[in-house]
Amino acid sequence: FRPIRKKKNEISTEAAERLLLENRRGVLSVNGAEGYPYAIPINYYFDKEARKIYFHGAKAGHKVEALRACDKVC
Predict the structure, then answer these.
(1) How far apart are CA 1 and CA 24, in angstroms?
(2) Rounded Cα distance, 32 and 9, in Å
(3) Which end of the chain is more exposed for a tag (fewer CB within 10 A), N or C?
(4) What are phi and psi of 69, to 5 degrees?
């Protein structure tokens, strides 16, 4: 990742983990059809030990197709 340009906006790894642990909802943004951005609200679980984020969703649909086409997300 690129370093953050405005250092005053940067948060620590601990603060980011706390944010993930204390919340259960977020927005997943992917590269959608024909390169258009696609963002969808999701429920998630952050596994601190494994350092992974799991999210609930259907096994088919636009989000799944976009993830299969490109795994870069925000």
Answers:
(1) 24
(2) 28
(3) N
(4) -75, -35
Strand partners, 44: 55
Determine the straight-line distance between the first and last CA of the chain, rounded to whole angstroms: 12
Per-residue model confidence as pLDDT tens digits over 25-34: 999 999 988 8
57 to each of 6, 17, 19, 45, how far by Cα in Å?
34, 22, 21, 12
**14-40 burial: b if 16+ Cβ within 10 Å, else e:** eeeeeebeeeeebebebbbeeeeeeeb
The mean pLDDT value of the chain amounts to 92
